Amino acid sequence: MTDQTPVLRLEDIVKTFPGVRALDGVSFSVLPGEVHALMGENGAGKSTLMKVLGGILQPNEGSIFIEEEPTVMVTPAQAKAKGVVFIHQELSLADELTVAENIWLGELPRKSLGRVNWTKLYDDTNAILKTLNVGFDAKTRVGDLSIANQQMVEIARALTVDPKAVIFDEPTASLTDAEKVVLFDVIADLQSKGVGIIYISHRMEEIFKITDRISVLRDGQYRGTLTTRETNEEDVTKLMIGRSLDLSRNESHHEMGDVALEVRGLSCGKLYQDVSFSVRKGEVLGFYGLVGAGRTEIAETLFGLRDPSAGQILLNGQEVRIKSPIDAIANGISLVPEDRKGQGLVLGMNCRDNMTLPQVDDLTAGPFVSDGAEVAIFDQYRDKLDIRTPGWRQTVGNLSGGNQQKIVIGKWLSMRPEVLIVDEPTRGIDVGSKSEIHNLIRDLAAQGYAVIVISSEMPEVLHVSDRIVAMYSGKVMREFTSEEVTEDSLIQAISGIINGKVA
Amino acid sequence: MNKDILLKQGAIWAFIVVELVFFSVAGSYLSVSDSAFMDFDNMLLLLKQSAPIGIIAVGMTIIMINGNIDLSVGATYALSAIVLLDSMTWPFMQDLGDWAIPFAWMFALTTGIVLGAINGLIVWKTGVDAFIVTLGSMLGYRGLVFMYNGEQPTSHLNWTLVDFAEAQFLGLHTATWFLLGATLLLWLLMTRTVHGRNAYAIGNNREAAVNAGIRVGPHFLWNFMLIGFLASLSAVVFYSESGSVNPNDGMLYELWAITAVVLGGTKLTGGYGSIISTLGGVIAIQLLRKGLGHIGADTETVNLVIGLILIAVLFLDRQLNRKGKEELKT
Amino acid sequence: MAELTKQGIGRILAKQGILIAFVIFMIGFALANPRFIDIDNISGVIRSSAILGVMALGVTFVVIGGNLDLSVGSMMSFSTIVVLDLHDKIGPTLAIPAMFGLTLGLGAFIGFLVGYLKLNSLIVTLGMLSAIHGLTLTWSGGQNMDIADKEGTWFSVFGQGEIAGVPVPILIFAALAIVLSLVLSKTPFGRKVYAVGGNGKAATFSGIPRARIVFMTYLISAFCVACAGLLQASRSLGSQNTVGQGLELEVLAAVILGGASLLGGSGTIFKTVIGVLILGFIQNGLLLMGLAFYVQYVVTWVIIILAVWLDIAAKRGRLWSQIA
User: Fold this and answer.
1) Count helices and strands in chain C by DSSP H and E runs
2) Which of A78, A108, A271 sits opposite B194 (nearest CB)?
3) CB contact under 8 A, C138 and B300
4) What is the pLDDT of residue C12?
5) How far is B112 from chain C (nearest CA, A)?
6) Are residues A114 and B198, on separate chains, in Cβ contact within 8 Å?
7) Complete edge-to-edge strand list for the sheet that includes strand A61-66
8) Which of C298, C299, C300, C321 would best serve as a mutation to test chain B binding (most B beta carbons within 10 A)?
9) Which residues of chain A make contact with B201, given a CB cutoff of 8 A?
């Protein structure tokens, strides 16, 4: 393997932004037919490195070699022409346009007078789609496709040229397990054609399943490359965060109180049906299922953002009707939403204002907001949750994902809720902060809060939950206690396979 | 899915039919004039009167499909008109006789292209939002209009030009031909060419377009030049006939053009829209103006009705796109 | 280190560019014509900016809340015509509250459409611009409106009176600016306006009644428009139907000049006042130099583009950043 010519080689890449050295002498190489994982915490420089490779950013120092030819790429289009294709994490498709127009975006085939050569466009596209074995054709409007199929369109883009290296940036973030299989097939196929693959992901199980080598970045610096077969998760993690990580299952059970929240036969149209569960004070109830199984929608209903079509919600044994987040908050229900930046925070506001936002009406002196009361609350929860920020004046948008999430959690804790719902608590948060958030959730339960955790990551659900509700396609499939749950039974339940008792 | 497209693109034409029926029926009871509303000559006149706003509106469609907006078209229109009429009084132009006409047209159209290019360049090179850029140039260009001839009107009548502008070919007026021509060309541009498809892509997902190597800045520049050209074409067609321009002419044209584009169903955020539907929007507005006059309503009610219809369209669009009770209440 | 300081200075320059430009501009004009900084002249400028200024205060709330209001100009024409018409019919004491009531009603209608029905504010207020214009024409029958007894009415006090040597319009502008500035920067309501404009979804997810806040911003805007209409009517005691035409965009220009982002969530009343004053002093300075009023349009254009450009350049750290 070592005597092959690398398809792509980076040498001492340096990229600086005003005041920051985002990449500091990064070197690594990708061999033909290799799947090379690139790992690192958020902010370690992965995205910057990929942007440099994809021609979106220019390095300040260092050189890029494609098949040992020194290369300069100034635009994404140039990079693509040289055989380096970047498949973005966030889908970058125009959903009003057809599949064909999206695949050939920026390079539509032309006839005279700048006209589009539609025949060639559709023929070429259908040829590519055939190799991917998908169930839609070139003229389909992208907006009418499922997320997974849109991802396939993204991948099809890579095949319009003869790619030498393909960069996948968190390609499985929004895919179901079945769809992942298709993706991995495509990757294997590219691999067999001698294409080098750079694969970025936070998900260890994927990394160990499909990659050959793993390179790790930390703080913009190259930390080393491991051969996947000869290493394990712990070593990789150590390299990424400089220490090892605790990934055990939740064993600690403490005293539980009365039932805080009970839901009976709750339905919301086609989104989910006949959902019943309860959560006690001091308990963490995990919701596990695929994206689209209806978990987030249940949380939104409990928080007053959706109207249930049937069923009851009981708080401390009393039936309540929750019509808006204001009702929910008044009843002591809080929601840490799934989309932290879109729903959880006002990014342009400072830390303090974000944290006190729901209760700003109560923090007044006369008609005005009381500065002192606000700062007191912020200080208290900054210390309690160990939020690392230079001060309350810091704009929230400048904080790391983990600290942002703590601000959202602090926002609700300071309201002293009875039920705290946390949706995807660690999405987009680096490994180090993940375990901190997990410990925090366990601590909160120990203090007597009733906590509901919704997650798509199995280790997370296993790690924090006392009980786990498995959902599939809008229905509760089964409820597990942390003693009886096994990975297999959990996967079966969320895949709709009924095994044993049906909840 | 096809039903959706039919509904979206058919709505404006259905609305036009409703207007025609309403004004014909109401007109036969209330009409202040004897002629029928659906009179053929009346309809021809209507198309002609739609031309000034219409030519601008088809251009505004491509700008709005891009996700931009141009508030300066009214001022561009006025300045081009002044250049058109004033240039014919220049000494060397007068020596040319009727050959001055093509030169005057060329000067006027060049003015529009240059003003459009200024907008486009500022948007491209500074990265300031098009709304703000054109809001500024709306004031600035209007200032230029005033600086040209103070608060005085600029007049020049050239009878050859008037004859040309008043001519009818195959029954349609010159202005109508220009409107239809502009619509056809822009329709071809938007549906058949790479530039047109890129316009949709940029409005739909700008970042994706940039990453795919589409040069968004120059693309915007071209489109601003195009709408500048169309704004001055509109002026050229209209003022060839009228021969006199006030410095306040063309005010609020941007708002009428935007109204027509929105009535035609173009998405405000960009990425979706149709030139043909915009033409429908233009005709619908003109029908409403004429129709209200026909049934004897005061001219001032036109503003009221069009304003409310615009809001009603927005409301209906919202209702049609609702997902029912399951929707997230944010 | 030296490089850092240089960067810092650049950033401050860019950030406070509008204020610095304003000061340089004032000094330049003052040197060219000493009358420019004469106290009477300054007071005159502020006084003639008051109508635009009062409207800009209200629009600042709307813009920070993440919306636009293009209807303020035509709404101002409406209030002016209505109060003048009612002045002779029911007397000034009743005409003023009636006019405020009607104008607030229009504001509430817009607020309902944008806040509760969540319709696009640009198009709604564009439609209302046209609709209210029609309403005004219907009210007046297309005629100019004049007060019969121009000498004998106390109604002129708002536009023409003075208290302790200070013109009343300036006092009203100042009082409104101070009160609204406190409301925006110090009260829970103000905080919520910023939150709704900064990220409406996050505001909803924090239990803030987004619809009501947006509704309130339009009500405040309508209240300011009513005050502006009162000033206008009282100053001239007679008016055309189109007195406020085009003001909506000048108001917006002042707000943008002050540095409020059209995306919402940023801006302050103080900055808007600066924006208004800049526009006023440009106009005045150019007039003193013997240039016609319309030259200010061109200068305003250049200044708006420069101001916004410097503002975004300060945020991204460099001047030339083409949009690819």
Assistant:
1) 14, 4
2) A108
3) yes
4) 60
5) 17
6) no
7) A20-30, A8-17, A61-66, A69-71
8) C298
9) 94, 97, 101, 105
Tens-place pLDDT, residues C250-291: 898 889 888 788 888 888 999 899 889 888 888 888 888 788
The reply to whether residue B325 touches residue A105, judged by beta carbons under 8 angstroms, is: no
Please report, for chain A, how many H helices and E strands are present, in that order.
16, 22
Q: What's residue A498's pLDDT? A: 62
Q: Among the CATH numbers 3.40.1620, 2.30.29, 1.20.272, 1.10.3470, which is that of C40-315?
A: 1.10.3470
Whole-complex ipTM: 0.83
The pTM of the full predicted model, rounded to 2 decimals, is 0.84
Matching fold, domains A8-241 and A246-332+418-503: yes
- pLDDT score, position C224: 97
Residue at token pair 């050229």: B236
| Most C CBs within 10 Å, among B121, B128, B255, B263, to test the C interface | B128
* Angle, helices C210-236/C188-198, rounded to nearest 10 degrees: 110
Mean pLDDT in consecutive groups of 10 residues from the start of chain A, 503 residues: 75 77 84 88 76 83 86 80 80 84 87 86 88 82 82 84 85 74 85 89 81 86 85 79 58 76 90 91 89 86 91 91 92 91 89 92 88 91 86 84 88 90 83 81 89 86 89 87 80 69 42
φ/ψ (deg, to 5) at A13: -75, 130
Contact state of C119 with B128 under an 8 Å Cβ cutoff: no
CATH number belonging to domain A246-332+418-503 = 3.40.50.300
- In chain B, residues with a C-beta closer than 8 Å to the C-beta of C126 are 255, 258-259, 310
CA distances from A322 to A178, A310, B322 (A): 36, 13, 22
**Residue C321: which pLDDT band, with cuts at 50, 70 and 90?**
low
Taking CA–CA distances from A357, the nearest residue in chain C reads C206
Characterise A75 by phi-psi region: left (phi > 0), alpha (psi -120 to 50), beta (else). Answer: beta
Measured N-to-C along each axis, helices C210-236 and C39-64 cross at an angle, to the nearest 10 degrees, of: 150
Mutation for testing the A interface, residue in B193, B326, B327, B330 having most A CBs under 10 Å? B326
* Smallest CA–CA distance from A350 into chain C, residue: C195
The verdict on a CB contact (< 8 Å) between B132 and C294 is no
The answer, for A100 touching chain B at a CB cutoff of 8 Å, is: no
Q: Pairing mode, if any, of strands C162-163 and C166-167?
A: antiparallel
CATH T-level assignment (fold) for domain A8-241: Rossmann fold (3.40.50)
**Structural domain boundaries in chain A:** 8-241, 246-332+418-503, 342-416
Q: Tally the domains of chain B.
A: 1
Q: Residue B42 carries which side chain, given as an amino acid letter?
A: N
Interchain proximity C297–B139, CB inside 8 Å: yes
Q: A56 touching C, CB under 8 A?
A: no
User: B160: domain range?
Assistant: 35-315
Q: Give the other-Cβ count within 10 Å of C59's Cβ.
A: 26
What pLDDT sits at residue A290?
Answer: 75
